[in-house]
Amino acid sequence: MLFRQRKKISFINKILSYFWPKNGWGRLFKYATLRIKRLPGSPHNIALGFTFGVVAAMTPLFGLHFIIGIFLAWIFGASVIASIIGNFVGNPWTFPFICFFNLKIGSYFYTSNYLTDINMKLISNELYLLWNAFYSFFIQFNIEGVNLYLSELKLIPPMFIGSIFTILIISGPCYFLSKFIIKNYKNNKLKLLKKKL
Questions:
Q1: pLDDT by residue (tens digit) across 54-92?
Q2: Cα separation of 67 and 73, whole Å?
Q3: pTM for the complete prediction?
Q4: Alpha-carbon distance 76 to 47, whole Å?
Q5: Which of 107, 101, 91 lies closest to 166 in space, CA to CA?
Q6: For residue 98, is it left (φ>0), alpha (ψ between -120 and 50) or beta?
Q7: According to the 3-state scheme, what is the secondary structure of the chain?
Q8: Using CA atoms, how far apart are residues 177 and 89, in angstroms rounded to an integer?
């Protein structure tokens, strides 16, 4: 069949390529940048969509990043595809730094005895509680269950508070820088087309 890969990629290799791309992170970054530049729409819409994707990736609502980014882009009439690309700022290599940064900022505003003793068991328990809270709200429509699960969270509340400050710091520069890059690319492309004519 046309455009099908000759060599079939195994499921394990697909997972490994998510953690470490075959052609390296530099090439992936260049491809993502080029993809954003070539998206249809105004520089404002593309930059806004990309920023919403990045903003969603900064939150500790794991598993919902794409949904949050797409929803925000849809509400504000921004580029949904740019939002999806922006969401990849949150990946297995950046999440530990994002979480640590959010937790450090959030700990100044939200005190918890568990912040000094963070381990994998506590993290997995937090994700389990968060998933159950979302399941209770969106599937079972059980508000009491949601309150019960959310009240048991120890790490997510300070991380969420910290993410608000992270978003405020990052969103402005992200929007204006991406808009500047996209605008320059589109203007240069327009100049080349005029020269050819």
A1: 999 999 888 789 999 999 999 999 999 999 989 988 877
A2: 10
A3: 0.77
A4: 12
A5: 101
A6: alpha
A7: CCCCCCCCCCHHHHHHHHHCCCCCHHHHHHHHHHHHHCCCCCHHHHHHHHHHHHHHHHCCCCCCHHHHHHHHHHHCCCCHHHHHHHHCCCCCCCHHHHHHHHHHHHCCCCCCHHHHCCCHHHHHHHHHHHHHHHHHHHCCCCHHHHHHHHHCCCCHHHHHHHHHHHHHHHHHHHHHHHHHHHHHHHHHHHHHHHHHC
A8: 15
Q: Which of 89, 84, 51 is nearest to 67 (CA)?
A: 84
Q: How confident is the model at residue 3 (pLDDT cuts 50, 70, 90)?
A: very low
Tokens, residue 80: 């949904």
Sign of CA dihedral 105, 111, 117, 119: negative
Q: What does the pLDDT average to over 138-161?
A: 86
Q: At 126, list the tokens.
A: 């937090």
Compute the Cα dihedral for 66, 69, 73, 78 and give only its sign.
Answer: negative
Structure token digits, residue 195? 């020269």
* Spatial separation of the C-alpha atoms in residues 11 and 97, rounded to whole Å: 27
Q: Which pLDDT score is estimated for 174?
A: 93
Residue showing tokens 């994707």: 53
- Residue 31 tokens read as 């491809």
